[in-house]
């Protein structure tokens, strides 16, 4: 009998990490092309009122992280490196990763308060049904994959809470979110 190199969970993890790197490469590529074909002055004219408004940008990041990751954290990493408004690399990535980790825990807690996956499904978020199926298939492993890949971390945190996942286990597994943000941040920092 032939032995499989990767089981279903391993394949799922590798596939989603690959998607994350592809997405990161596209984002960085677009950023570099945009930077190459526009001057710093032009970029400041277009985005200056947003770039310089730290409470607005951080508020949008917090809301995005709580509302199912509407805007990927990599966009905010680029903003942090371009402006240095929230500090150097270590400070910026620390702030962004702690916000992301905390937002995930907020969603986990909301899920715990709901305690019924049926309520989440009745909210008519069709796309969340897909992640519910994945949660039922992979369980806690899905937190690991969502922490290190482009899967919607906030939505999966909500499902984990509603699915009554052990809180300590969730908090440990979701620490990989911090690792992901520092790792992706290092890549973005090097190429930008």
TrEMBL record:
Keywords from the UniProt entry: Membrane, Transmembrane, Transmembrane helix
Membrane-spanning parts: 20-38, 50-71, 91-110, 131-158, 170-189
InterPro entries per the UniProt record, alphabetical: VTT_dom
Keyword Isomerase applies: no
Residue span, VTT domain: 90-188
Signal sequence residues: none
UniProt cross-references to Pfam families, sorted A to Z: VTT_dom
Name used for this protein in its record: VTT domain-containing protein
Organism: Negadavirga shengliensis
């Amino acid at each position: 009998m032939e032995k499989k190199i990767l089981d279903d969970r391993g394949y799922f993890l590798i596939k989603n990490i690959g998607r994350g790197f592809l997405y990161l490469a596209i984002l960085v590529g677009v950023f570099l092309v945009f930077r190459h074909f526009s001057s710093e002055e032009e970029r400041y004219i277009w985005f200056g009122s947003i770039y310089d408004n730290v409470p607005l940008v951080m508020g949008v990041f917090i809301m995005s992280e709580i509302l199912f990751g509407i805007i990927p954290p990599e966009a905010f990493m680029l903003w942090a490196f371009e402006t240095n408004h929230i500090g150097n690399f270590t400070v910026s990535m620390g702030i962004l990763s702690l916000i992301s980790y905390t937002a995930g825990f907020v969603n986990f807690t909301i899920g715990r308060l709901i305690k019924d996956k049926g309520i989440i499904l009745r909210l008519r978020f069709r796309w969340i049904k897909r992640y519910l199926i994945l949660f039922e298939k992979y369980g806690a492993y899905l937190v690991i994959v969502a922490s290190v890949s482009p899967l919607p971390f906030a939505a999966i945190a909500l499902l984990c809470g509603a699915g009554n996942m052990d809180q300590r286990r969730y908090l440990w597994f979701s620490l990989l979110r911090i690792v992901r943000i520092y790792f992706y941040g290092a890549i973005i920092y090097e190429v930008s």
